[in-house]
Amino acid sequence: EPEVTQTPSHQVTQMGQEVILRCVPISNHLYFYWYRQILGQKVEFLVSFYNNEISEKSEIFDDQFSVERPDGSNFTLKIRSTKLEDSAMYFCARTGDMNTEAFFGQGTRLTVV
Amino acid sequence: GENVEQHPSTLSVQEGDSAVIKCTYSDSASNYFPWYKQELGKRPQLIIDIRSNVGEKKDQRIAVTLNKTAKHFSLHITETQPEDSAVYFCAASIMTNAGKSTFGDGTTLTVKP
């Protein structure tokens, strides 16, 4: 059973559109992460989020991306104006505290057409 | 930043044989090394991890070794079975921020019955 639930499982969007990917923790986790995996490639870190703030982000996480926890529960990744190269699997992950491994959600497959 | 290299990119073994996947890392500050198994279309799942205060860890048919001096770590799978077929990723991180990992490129393991 996944430690976090992601919705939707698959999202198809037109280039230039905004998308919001959601991550719902099952219990009260503190640390969240978003990763991206382009088809057939490695898993890449995007951003870490702690205490309702971004704690670290990668070079991939440019101004097109944003994260928030709007209602204290769901954790969202927004891509403002999608590009073809944003097509990938996006995984939300959590750790219980800083010293434990990351557990990944099932992922959202984003297809930009 | 951290750079993780993983070899080989593909590995094919006969059922019952052993499989070895090797990784190197560049940042001497990294002290936590998880290994993930990813089946097609699924999320990465942690199968074993090792922290820098130990040189080896074993869990049934899976073992990991770590050489901090050489910045090498390896995954060993013995008595391979067809269900071991998957993509395996090594990763490196700092234990106080274990959710943020740098992944290797992955190894596609095929176990032939």
Labels describing this entry:
heterodimer; A: 113 residues; mainly beta; 4-stranded antiparallel sheet; 0% helix; 52% strand; B: 113 residues
Oligomer: heterodimer
Determine the N-to-C terminus distance of chain A.
32 Å
The best one-word shape of chain A is globular
How does the major sheet of chain A shape up? Answer: 7 strands, mixed
The stretches of 5 or more residues of chain A where confidence is low (pLDDT under 50) are none
Q: Work out the strand percent of chain A.
A: over 45%
Could you report the average pLDDT of chain B, rounded to the nearest whole number? 95
Categorize the overall geometry of chain B: globular
Compute the separation of the termini of chain B in Å: 41 Å
Percentage of residues assigned to helices of chain B? under 10%
Describe the structure.
The complex is a heterodimer of chains A (113) and B (113). Chain A has 113 residues and is mainly β. In chain A, 0% of the residues lie in helices and 52% in strands. Chain A has no helices and eleven strands. In chain A, strands 2, 4, 5, 6, 9, 10 and 11 form a seven-stranded mixed beta sheet that branches. In chain A, strands 1-3-8-7 form a four-stranded antiparallel beta sheet, with no helix packed on it. In chain A, a hairpin with a 7-residue loop joins strand 9 and strand 10. The radius of gyration of chain A is 13 Å and the shape is globular. Chain A starts with a strand and ends with a strand. In chain A, 33% of the residues are buried. The mean pLDDT of chain A is 89. Chain B has 113 residues and is an all-beta fold. Chain B is 0% helix and 54% strand. Chain B has no helices and eleven strands. In chain B, the strands form two sheets. In chain B, strands 2, 4, 5, 9, 10 and 11 form a six-stranded mixed beta sheet that branches. Chain B is globular, with a radius of gyration of 13 Å. Chain B starts with a strand and ends with a strand. The model of chain B has no long low-confidence stretch (mean pLDDT 95). The chains are: A mainly beta (113), B mainly beta (113). At the A-B interface, strand 4, strand 5, strand 9 and strand 10 of A face strand 4, strand 5 and strand 10 of B.
